[in-house]
Amino acid sequence: MSAPLYGLLLVGGKSSRMGQDKAQLMYRDDQPEWIRLHSILEQHCDKTFLSHRASQNFGVTAIIDPAEGPLLAIHTAQAAHPMARWLVIACDLPLLESATLDELIAGASLQSQATSYHSRVDHRAEPLCAIYEPSSADAISQAVKKGSRCPRKLLETIETKLLKLSDSHALDNANTPADTLEVRSFLTNSRMPKTITVRYFAQLRELAKCEEETITTECVTSSGLYEEL
């Protein structure tokens, strides 16, 4: 009998950089992001859970997040249902669509301990849109005991299958107010190419190996430009 696929939506973060609860932000359809993403997970998973702090209440089935980082939240879910495969996503992915999860599930390898996407920014594993197999539980448990809180580092130490994103922006995070402006520019199709001159100073000049360059970009904020560069 094959292991069931359970969904876990992480909403227990404190959203300190955003200044308001990221799970409750609305980008489209007058729906908070947690409802939109929870619905997408339900389409793909045998059961779907929220992972939230004990002080929170969303009115749906949940696994309490110890509030000590996402890796411990994943560990807690695995301990609650050790036979399940876990499809884990974060609540700050406003450009994530059902098709991205379709491809993740189709590309997952049962012989690997996890399946994830390459980040478009640094090409490392994207840990919060990933499938964690039951075989990853021991490694995650050991990492948690050693004080690790970072699922990305965990994915780099276990057997992880990495996939390429078809939609390169599907996993763009919205962690700050500036990030929300970038996201809304995608959703409203208001991005326009513009040619600008970028000047570099100090360490950035050393990294860029030049004092200035002219580039074409569609970014609408300086933080979006910084990430693109």
Low-confidence stretches: none
What separation lies between the terminal Cα atoms?
48 Å
Alpha-beta content class: alpha/beta
Give the number of helices.
Answer: 8
Gyration radius from CA atoms, angstroms? 19 Å
**Strand order across the biggest sheet?**
5-4-1-6-8-7-9
Range of helix content: 25-40%
> What general outline do the C-alpha atoms trace?
globular
Q: What does the main sheet amount to? A: 7 strands, mixed
Summarize the entry for a quick read.
31% of the residues lie in helices and 24% in strands. It has helices at 33-44, 70-80, 98-107, 137-145, 151-155, 177-187, 202-208, 222-228; strands spanning 5-10, 26-28, 31-32, 47-52, 62-64, 85-90, 114-118, 125-132, 160-163, 194-199, 212-217.
What does this 3D model show about the protein?
The chain is α/β, with parallel strands linked by helices and 229 residues long. Helix content is 31%, strand content 24%. The protein has 8 helices and 11 strands. A hairpin with a 2-residue loop joins strand 2 and strand 3. The radius of gyration is 19 Å and the shape is globular. 33% of the residues are buried.
